[in-house]
Automatic annotation (TrEMBL):
The keyword Cell membrane does not apply. PROSITE patterns: UMUC. This is DNA polymerase IV. It is an enzyme of class 2 (transferase). InterPro entries: DNA/RNA_pol_sf, DNA_pol_Y-fam_lit_finger_sf, DNA_pol_Y-fam_little_finger, DNA_polymerase-Y, DNApol_IV, PolY_HhH_motif, Rev_trsase/Diguanyl_cyclase, UmuC. The keyword Cytoplasm applies. It is found in: Cytoplasm.
Length: 373
């Protein structure tokens, strides 16, 4: 009886219209937008003579250059690759413009990062019936107002929208209509499932799971035995079941700032300067969001990539950049090694946001028909 009730409850849940918007090679595209001399060329944001690639242009991707790839490997794959220093303030500036566009259509916007977000447009401010039309209009607005292109995925839940947004990249969109969900998922290569990483995909391949239909053939018990708690997630999503709501008011649990240096640093004056700069930036971020915290953590990544963190918690909230700096200096003095570092970071947690109750309202309205695309 319980099983039957659960099926009925699932069927009675109103289908939503979810859009996942993903900017195309965002950091690299911004650099090419601002510097016409870089347009049409293979560029990588970050990296340089050391470090890793933060983002790669589509021209660089043709040679196999990917984000998180060591710069040395990227240069080997693409000898004419141009490295560009990241400008995160500029990326944030454009990201804010894009989010303002989103909010003209719906208040149910859940940013995942600077360059992607979920939008619930089941009910929208412009009373546009077709989610597909909304996505197309948003992409057009983004291009007109920023000069950048975006891709979009449209379907009945976040999982499907996320998968769909990658189908027609760059500068395209894909709708997975409710009547096409099963067919789409059964034919989808397993490595294309959001939440299936490279290691898991390789394990699935050894189990002769190559596409959705192979995954769907496994029972819940089999998947939980093979993949633990993730087994239930795989069992559900291959059947198009994903009930996560778009959450515009996520409770923020920490705020962080960090810097990866072009060259390793080890001089006291340099360290002092960087800690002051990070403290000031952290204060600015907190001020804009009216956030306070009681736990400050210092993050150090050394030249050999070893990582060290140390934190301090106090009864009262940290007040300003001066307090951040003084505490960061104390934590710095406690470091176990006196060797060159490649990254410094400060983060504040134990925030006042965790004391505030968040109210989420799910819209209960009928699902309007999608357009096919």
């Amino acid at each position: 009886m319980t099983f039957v009730v659960k099926i009925i409850e699932h069927q009675m849940q109103p289908q939503r219209k979810i859009i996942h918007v993903d900017m195309d090679a965002f950091y690299a595209s911004v650099e090419q937008l601002d510097n016409p001399g870089l347009r049409g060329k293979a560029i990588a944001v970050g990296g340089g003579h050391r470090g890793v690639v933060a983002a790669a242009s589509y021209e660089a991707r043709k040679f196999g250059v990917r984000s998180a790839m060591p710069s040395k490997t990227a240069k080997e794959k693409c000898p004419h690759l141009i490295f560009v220093k990241p400008r995160f303030q500029r990326y944030k500036e454009i990201s804010n413009k894009i989010r303002n566009i989103f909010h003209e259509y719906t208040d149910l916007v859940e940013p995942l990062s600077l360059d992607e977000a979920y939008l619930d447009v089941t009910e929208n401010k412009k009373d546009i019936e077709s989610a597909n039309d909304i996505a197309r209009e948003i992409r057009k607005r983004i291009f007109e107002e920023t000069g950048l292109t975006a891709s979009a995925g449209i379907s009945v839940n976040k999982f499907l929208a996320k998968v769909a947004s990658d189908i027609n990249k760059p500068n395209g969109q894909k709708t997975i209509h409710p009547t096409k969900i099963n067919e789409f998922l059964e034919n989808l290569p397993i490595e294309k499932f959001y939440g299936v990483g490279k290691v898991t995909a390789n394990k699935m391949h050894t189990l002769h799971i190559f596409k959705g239909s192979d995954l769907k053939a496994k029972t819940l018990e089999q998947l939980e035995g093979l993949f633990g708690k993730s087994g239930r997630y795989y069992y559900n999503v291959v059947r198009g079941i994903h009930n996560g709501e778009v959450k515009p008011n996520r409770i923020q649990k920490s705020v962080a700032v960090e810097r990866t240096f072009w060259d390793d640093i080890n001089e006291d004056e340099e360290i002092d300067e960087k800690l002051k700069s990070l403290s000031q930036e952290l204060e600015e971020r907190l001020g804009r969001k009216e956030i306070q915290g009681k736990t400050l953590m210092l993050k150090i990544k050394y030249k050999d990539f070893s990582l060290y963190t140390r934190s301090k918690t106090q009864e009262l909230y940290f007040e300003n950049a001066e307090k951040f700096y003084k505490t960061a200096k104390q934590l710095w003095e406690l470091r176990p090694f006196n060797k060159a570092i490649r990254l410094l970071g400060l983060s504040l947690s134990n925030l006042n946001t965790e004391e505030k109750k968040q109210v989420s309202v799910q819209l209960k309205i009928p699902f309007e028909e999608f357009d096919n695309d």
